[in-house]
Structures are given as C-alpha cells and as structure tokens.
Amino acid sequence: MIAIIITILLGLASRKYSHQLLLFVAQNAGDILWAMMVYFGFRFLLVRQNLLTAVLLSFLFSYGIEFSQLYQEDWINQVRGTLFGALILGKGFLAVDLIRYTTGIMIVAILDKVAVYLLTLRR
Predict the structure, then answer these.
(1) Fewer CB within 10 A of the end CB, N or C, for the chain?
(2) Which pTM value belongs to this model?
(3) How far apart are CA 71 and CA 81, in angstroms?
(4) Which residue numbers in the chain have pLDDT < 50?
C-alpha cells in the first residue's frame, strides 16, 4: 500500500514539475509510474498469488485501458474530461503508451523479484 501511495505521489509530481525534468523523463515518467502503480495494486490485492499473476494482470489492465481509449462516445469522453477520469482512463490512444506501460511493469517486476530474493537471503 505504501508503494502505491509513493508511486501516485511521484506520478503527480512528474506532471506538476515536468518543466524541471529532462524532456525524456517528463514525457514518459507519468505512464511508466502509472503502470507501476497498477502492478503494486495487483500485488497488494493478490498477495498470495505469484509475481507472474501480477505481471499478467497488470498488462491486461493497462493495455485494456489504453485500447479502451479508441472508444470515443460522448458519455465516456465526459468521464475522461474530469480529473479522475483522465488519470484513470486517459484521453486518447497512443501506441507509445503501450511501450511505457511495458517498461514500468517490467522494471517494477524485476525490483519485486530482487526484493523477494534479498528478503529470503536474510532468513
């Protein structure tokens, strides 16, 4: 849960202070962090499941949200027009977002695997 909160704060900060970040970081950090938050959410909700389950569900959820942006009807665009709607559902499909989501999920899955390994060494 702490990882989710920290990731949300970092994501919001990456948008608010984007003008102070390197252009590459400013353009990509938000979506990478969003996918990391999705992964942390699945790991939190499905704590007894293995890492691969969280990875697969994170991909399905993230890609599903991105592809849902191809659907452009008035009612869903009104939801997307709100702050929370835009943060959760996005506004328009971008193929590059799929690469960003993949990057975020893979980074955090590797970090998770390393953390679990290091914790088992301490026992």
Answers:
(1) C
(2) 0.87
(3) 14
(4) none
